Structure formats: structure tokens, C-alpha cells
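We emphasize that the prediction below concerns an isolated chain of 282 residues; any contacts that depend on oligomerization or on bound cofactors are therefore not represented. The input was used exactly as deposited, without trimming of termini.
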Amino acid sequence: MPDRPVLAVGDAELGELRTRLAGTRWPAPWPVTGWAAGTDPGELRRLVAHWASGYDWRAHEAAINALPHHFADIAGTPVHYLRFDGEAPDALPIILTNGWPSSFLELIGLAQRLATPSEHGGSAADSFTVIVPSLPGFAFSPQRPSLTDPVQTHELWHLLMHEELGFSRYAAHDGDLGAGITSRLAEAHPDALAGIHLMAVASPVAYDEGSLTAPERPTSARWRPGRRRRARTSTSRAPGRSPWPTAWPTRPPGCSPGSSRSTARGATAAGTCPRGSATTSC
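Result of the prediction step, given as a C-alpha cell string:
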């Protein structure tokens, strides 16, 4: 745990922000109402007024500082992460990765429910030890100086889980940009991954065309150009910044729509998930 708060925004900075919000130059009214031509002007004014005078930054700052923060140097890259220890002694480790534009904060509610299910109507025996890292360039993990660093983010995550934290086997859950990272992680280290849960599916780095079935080959041919473009953009690197989220969603990992899912203990259970999710056992 750090010996000082990870966030300490000065009063002058907060005052300057409030001044800029209060001095917003509003556009002339558009000849339509509501959301017909973009953001509802009344709703936007309400939000700006809340940020300028109603939002209690200090309360949120204190809540963020109270989280279980840790920092590690992974292959020369500083990595920030949260650790929530599972309440069961044999809790399976799991790493959760946020998407873009977002931050580790969106995963706090989910992490707490996974680590301490008995506090949320579940059983302590089903707990996980949850690791929530910050992507490079997001929040407290600094942006990497080069886009050509040989250690990509999925390898940073494996080094964090395996070398830094000593987990020989673990699970992973992600969506959006994080789903691409987890997909690469599972491809690179299948023996270390107990299972992955994705809310988006990334294209594989490579695959054997000869393994496709006859019905699959025409579809693969049609999608091959787009797959290559997405593979280039769904990179394991994250050289950007992300605003704080406005909500902390708590979708449970480990399920797929209308099918069975692999659980942490190797059993299967019926489960449903939001549309677009997918579960894979490695």
C-alpha cells in the first residue's frame, strides 16, 4: 500500500475548475427541443451546475484513496493495481481490465462482490482474489514512452499475476479494449488461464485455416480483411488517457447467453449474461 494518498488535488485547482464551469459560454438555442439535435441544453446546464457547485470532490477523493492500491515495476513499466483478497483461503485469482474510455474505478463494485460474496448474498466459498490493474496511460499507470515496447500489455498482466504476485493459475474478465488484452493473454499463456470471460470478442493473432469447417470457410473469407484491420486497432497497448467513469457496473463474469458456463471450481452452471458476452475455458 502507498504511504501517501494517490490523489491530492489542491484547492486552487478545484477553484479554477469551478470558475471555468461557471463561465461556460452557452451556444444560441437550436430550433429544436430536447435531444433532437444533440445533448439536451437543459440537461447539460443541470450537469454543469452540479459539477460547479453540487459535486463533492473531496468525498470521492477520500473514497478513491481508501481503495487497496498497490504499485509494481513490471519489466521496467510502472503498473498500478488494486488487490481485493478473497474471503476463502483457496480463492481463485482473477484479473479484471477496464475498457476505453474508462478506468479501474468502473470495476470496483464487481471486484468487491467477487472478493466478498458473503456480504452480497453469496457464499464465501465462491470468492475470488481480485486484481484490478490500471492500463498504461490510464489513471495511475503512466503512459508508456513508446508504441514499440516489446512487452505488450497482456504480457505485463501475466508478469504481474505470475511473477509479481505468485499466482500459478488465474482467470480473467474484460470488455471493450480489455477484451482484446485478455484474448491475447489467453492465446499466449493458455496453461496459466483457468478461464476467460469476454464482453467483446477479439480476432486471434493467427489460426489454421485448415481447421475451419466447410460452413465456416466462406464466412472467414468475407471477414478476413476486417479482421486484420481490427487486429491492428485492438492492440494490447493502451497509450491514452481516460476520464473517470460515472458509474461502477457490476456484471458478474463467467456466463454466456442461454448456455452453460465454467465456474472457478471446474463445474458448470446455467447462466445468462448481457448480450455480447462470451465465456471461454482455456
